[in-house]
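lol ok so funny story. i was supposed to be doing the assay writeup but got distracted and ended up predicting the structure for this chain instead. priorities right. anyway since i did it might as well share w the group, maybe its usefull for someone
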Amino acid sequence: MKRMKQNTILPFVNTNDKNFWMKTKYISLVLMALMIGGLVSCTKELVKMNENPNGADPNTTNPNMVLSTVLTESARSFVNLGYQDMAGTMQHTQKDGWAGGHNGYDWGGSNNWAGYYSILRDNQYVYDRAVELDYGLHQGITLVIKSLMFGLITDLWGDAPYSNALKGAQEGLENKFPSYDTQQSIYEGILSDLNQANTILASSGLTGSVGSADVIYNGNALKWRKFANSLALRYYMRLSEKLPDVARQGIERIAGDPGTYPIIQTIDDDVALSFPGNNNGDSWPSNATYDTDSTNYRRIKMADTFVRALLQRKDPRIGAFANRVKIFINVDETLPAGTDVVQTTTVNGEERLVRRIHPSRFPSGVTIADINQDTNYVGLPLGLSVPYAYNLSTDMQQSSRNPHVSWVNSVFANAKNGIKARVLSAAEVHFILAEASAVYGWNAGDAEDHYKKGVQASFSVWNVGSAENYLTEPDVAFDGTQEQIITQKWIASWSTAAEAWFDWRRTGYPQLTGATQQGVLPIRFYYPLEERNLNTTNVNAAIQRLENTPYDDPFLSNGKNGIWTKPWVIQGTGKPW
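and the output, tada:
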């Protein structure tokens, strides 16, 4: 019994056997080996289980699978910016509900560039795979998109991560927390990449096939060259006040050699992308198809500034941009006191609804001078504290159904409206060349011809017919001034107002009054809050390179990081104020 106690683990083994412990050691080693082998096998199985059978291996994926997303998201970013808050800044539209960011530049100090850099990371992946596979077509396309998106970032913020950007997966703090390249060096890099893209895309032995992944040009290398060179014109003109010699040389080189540097000249070559309209994500931003309350559509109204500019010029594009008021107002002091009725009347042979009202029915403080009685188009003025109450609104709620103000055209409420996200157009290119020739005296072609072609291109995009008669209107007939050219460019930038903002910053045109106590429009975005919290040293260095102005917010928490502080591109130019 005593032995049995001593050998409770192996009761039937003679532990007095001198070979017992050697055998036991051997068995233990074998068991350990089996256990380790089992663990390795289990680990391999776990790894195998964690592999997504439906996922793509980045080392072998066809770059076309990512390219289409890069192109659609790039185009979407431009329309989301240019049709939304930048349209408010440039006074194409105003909002009558939740309007702070749109009407009053209340951007919260945390404008986020993460979405733009996400596009650039995907684009870099396509470029890297194209280099591995020796796909020249893909390389050219991605160099253009890289230039487009980095151009947008530096235009909006100023200095930004560029040389060390998109390297977060690599070792080194300089890649995790990238330094900020100067705005000048970013512009120089953009122009160099665009020149390289044009050269690559002009190759007779161009390799790679993009097929339907190229949702903009369907793999047409010539059109991508036109995109590259037209984008270069945009950025040379961006430098016209800061580096006029560089701008002149670049524009004259491109304009003077169309064989080597083809450019966009007709709307068929516009960089534009249709919205499929299959869900909210791939539909026009203000569509009401997937927004049952239609608030994103309803709260956008035409801006008084833009409406008056179009009416003054008898511009037929207003009908493409805006709806007429549903019920126009007629203030009549001869009516019995207390009268406020909606009636049917005939205007120019058409039956319309009119609200006839005696001044005694006005809210306290409202006078006849405050009422816009235009029978067709009425815009929201700037800086209204209660915009949804304007013009005797009968709906006193944010995002109102005010029938006495012009909403944007109903087509913008449709998911599949046929309207495209327009990134770069023939109209813009012609206006650039008109300005280069007429204003700066550079050799860029006939200024008046380019001006007229720019106007006509915009008319054609919005399907309003010939601009021939319009071009004879007193405020439209070509006079060669920068103000006239930029004003027409501003009108043509409907739904792409960010470019109009950059033009205004460079030229001061059109002459617009700001909606805040500063009285002037802002000129840049705040650096993102995430950068200020996580990449503090580098963002602070960039902030110190900004230039204070008399309009800076005195309560800035970050010194110069304001929306009225000047980035490099306009420092010392005396513009826009």
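The chain has 20 helices and seven strands. Strands lie at 93-95, 271-273, 300-302, 327-331, 340-347, 350-357, 421-424.
back to the writeup now i swear
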